[in-house]
Amino acid sequence: MLVRTTTLVRRPPEAVWPLLCDSRITSTPRCPVFQLGAPTPVECFLPAGPGAVGAPRQCVSDRGVVYQRITEWSPPARLAFHMERTDLPFGSCVSALSDTFELTPVAGGRATRLTRSTRVEVRGRFRWARALAVGIGLKAVHRFVFRDWRR
């Protein structure tokens, strides 16, 4: 399953890139999906310092942590990583998760079209229902984080 979300950030890619590497979410979710159990993002950061292919990345939510490994590092245009493990409740039904952020300059470089694509493989019984729930939750997370970053 692929979940893709795009937004426009009124800052150049060089100003948006640091949000992918070290950001703390300061807003409160308004979407009811979070009240139904979707994890609310708190922060993402690079625990080992500078980013590079092979470096770790962590994303913390109110329900646990997703431990990731960077697979592509092309500042300020593209960042990709895959989940190595998680202690989030959905971890038992997700066999693989990978993310790609693409930053495209627009408006003469004064703004950025930011696209996040998350590829997820769901396992277990009732896979279609689990995939639907995970997909809805991921879309809500994408939108929530993008809304915070646009501020």
How would you sum up this structure, described in words?
The protein has 151 residues and is an alpha+beta fold. The protein has a single domain, classed as Alpha-D-Glucose-1,6-Bisphosphate, Chain A, domain 4 (2-Layer Sandwich), CATH 3.30.530. It has helices spanning 13-21, 32-35, 127-150; strands at 2-9, 22-24, 41-45, 56-61, 64-74, 78-86, 94-106, 111-122. The chain is globular and about 50 Å long. The two termini are 29 Å apart.
**CATH fold-level assignment:** Alpha-D-Glucose-1,6-Bisphosphate, Chain A, domain 4
The helix/strand class is alpha+beta
CATH superfamily annotation: START domain
Round the Cα radius of gyration to an integer and report it: 15 Å
Spatial sequence of strands, sheet with the most strands: 1-8-7-6-5-4-3-2
Q: Give the biggest beta sheet.
A: 8 strands, antiparallel
Give average pLDDT, whole number.
95
Instruction: Spell out the helices and strands N to C.
Output: EHEHEEEEEEH
Distance between the termini: 29 Å
Number of strands: 8
DSSP helix fraction: 10-25%
Helical run tally: 3
Instruction: Assign an overall shape.
Output: globular
Q: Tell me the CATH architecture.
A: 2-Layer Sandwich
